[in-house]
Hints:
Blueprint: E1 3-9, H1 21-24, H2 29-43, E2 45-51, H3 55-65, E3 71-75, H4 84-91, E4 97-101, E5 123-126, H5 131-147
Parallel strand pairs: 1-2, 1-3, 3-4, 4-5
Helix pairs in contact: 2-5, 3-4
Amino acid sequence: MPAIVYVLNGPNLNLLGQRQPEIYGPATLADVERRCAAVAGELGLELRFLQSNWEGQIVDWIQEARGLAAGIAINAGALTHTSVAVLDALNAFEGPVIEVHVSNVHKRERFRHRSFVSLRADGIIVGCGVQGYELALRRIAELAAARA
């Protein structure tokens, strides 16, 4: 049975490719999911790719992943900078967590420099465009294999 990896996307990521393409690029979330599915297949992982604009739904999915998933890749969107609830849920997850940001948040507004997710993340991928998701899956596979 393949290891399950959750790829969680927060608020406004459903608008990827439409919202501020000069910052986030032209790829849509469906494009990202296709790319992740290809990498997951290559790595022998089962992918659970999800997006919500609701903080509670993200928390529910993180809790669902407990005891089920080998790892979580998360682009929490604006919740990255505001949500202690997401951090608390991630702290209850025992597998590897990789934080993903499409843009380089450190070259953007000051409020984006602070991340609650980073306090739990085992790695952070910033500014690599949508390729960051693929890199996150590869890192999770490596970390999960080392724990097995």
